[in-house]
């Protein structure tokens, strides 16, 4: 199975007509910018350089268009990314600190490369129960594997807080990444990438380290 590093790469490789690809690209951009409710089919057609009639030849409604974007992304892209991520994680099993450093840098880059689709997924996760359940079902087993890796490192490192669990560390990691992402892409705060990553790493490692 081919591995992709971005949604755009996956979209470029997907077998579809040029018109359909343009519509999906415009929809992703506008859904991320204005939200699903704030985007009309007319806006999507105009951004894609197509007529409304042409757009409706490919997608019968805005709801169908959203489904065609979110469903393949969750069912195909998310497992691909997470599987590759876990393989890479296993290559960084030096210490819990090195692992968190790698995870933060890797996911920070991934989220920036795919910021538009990440925004859509976050919005749909919060408002669409079907999407939420699909994500939980697909990522649940991957999270369990990651917990096992982290827990193993915790039990062999005497510098970490003995009260910490892998689940708490994953929640801490995810929370810090989400806050940073929303600050940049929802609140439009300008950040220096290196400084932002360094701050996230410092925040996470401070909690992990014993008597920090």
TrEMBL record:
UniProt keywords, alphabetically: DNA-binding
UniProt key word DNA-binding: yes
Family annotation (InterPro entries): DNA-bd_HTH_TetR-type_CS (IPR023772), Homeodomain-like_sf (IPR009057), HTH-type_Tx_Regulator (IPR050624), HTH_TetR (IPR001647)
Domain HTH tetR-type: 17-77
DNA-binding region in chain numbering: 40-59
Domain of life: Bacteria
Record-linked Pfam families: TetR_N
Protein name per Swiss-Prot or TrEMBL: TetR/AcrR family transcriptional regulator
């Amino acid at each position: 199975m081919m591995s992709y590093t971005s949604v755009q790469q996956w979209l470029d490789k997907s077998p579809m007509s040029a018109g359909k690809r343009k519509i999906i690209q415009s929809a992703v951009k506008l859904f991320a910018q204005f939200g699903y409710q704030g985007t009309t089919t007319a806006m999507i057609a105009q951004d894609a350089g197509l007529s409304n009639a042409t757009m409706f030849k490919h997608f019968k409604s805005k709801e169908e268009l959203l489904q065609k974007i979110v469903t393949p992304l969750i069912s195909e892209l998310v497992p691909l990314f997470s599987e590759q991520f876990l393989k890479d994680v296993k290559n960084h099993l030096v210490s819990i600190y090195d692992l968190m450093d790698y995870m933060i840098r890797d996911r920070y880059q991934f989220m920036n490369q795919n910021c538009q689709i990440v925004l859509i997924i976050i919005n749909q996760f919060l408002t669409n129960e079907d999407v939420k359940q699909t994500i939980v079902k697909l990522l649940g087993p991957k999270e369990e594997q990651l917990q096992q890796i982290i827990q193993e490192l915790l039990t062999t490192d005497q510098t970490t807080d003995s009260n910490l669990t892998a689940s708490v560390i994953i929640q801490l990691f995810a929370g810090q990444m989400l806050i940073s992402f929303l600050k940049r892409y929802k609140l439009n705060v300008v950040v220096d990438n290196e400084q932002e990553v360094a701050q996230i790493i410092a925040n996470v490692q401070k909690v992990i380290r014993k008597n920090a």
